[in-house]
Design goal:
Elements: E1 2-5, E2 8-11, E3 16-22, E4 31-37, E5 44-49, E6 56-58, E7 66-71, E8 76-81, E9 90-97, H1 101-110, E10 120-121, E11 125-130
Parallel strand pairs: 2-11
Antiparallel strand pairs: 1-3, 3-8, 4-5, 4-9, 5-6, 7-8, 9-10, 9-11
């Protein structure tokens, strides 16, 4: 029900645009989050966006470099990644949280995205950034 795409291999400083296409549920009833997992590390939240207003969250590690957006008419969320660094390497997953704006608000307050609450997960797309 979530399909992530757009990963690839780039050199440091390059850009990639990930897309997460959703189906099978009412898209704007859900917040969409982007998570990533580097080899040997825990999955971490990168960014999330509300389905019902313009509320967004970015992890400190990507703030100013990544931009999340969504097109509810196309049931798709995008993650524009600029100025990529080798430490951005990993498998990127998108996920949907029915708590919607509350999910984004919680991330903003806590300063971290919690995996719990995300109901649907995509299969992941690999991003490799070389130095």
């Amino acid at each position: 029900q979530l399909q992530a795409s757009g990963g690839g291999s780039v050199q440091a400083g390059g850009s990639l645009r990930l897309a997460c296409a959703a189906s099978g549920f009412t898209f704007d009833d859900y917040a969409i989050g982007w998570f990533r997992q580097a080899p040997g590390k825990k999955r971490e939240g990168v960014s999330c966006i509300s389905g019902e207003d313009d509320r967004v969250y970015y992890a400190d590690s990507v703030k100013g470099r990544f931009t999340v957006s969504r097109d509810n008419a196309k049931s798709t969320v995008y993650l524009q990644m600029n100025s990529l660094k080798p430490e951005d390497t990993g498998v990127y997953y998108c996920a949907a949280d029915p708590r919607n704006t509350a999910s984004v608000g919680t991330a903003q307050v806590l300063g971290v995205m919690l995996l719990v609450g995300y109901e649907y997960w995509g299969q992941g797309t690999l991003v490799t950034v070389s130095s």
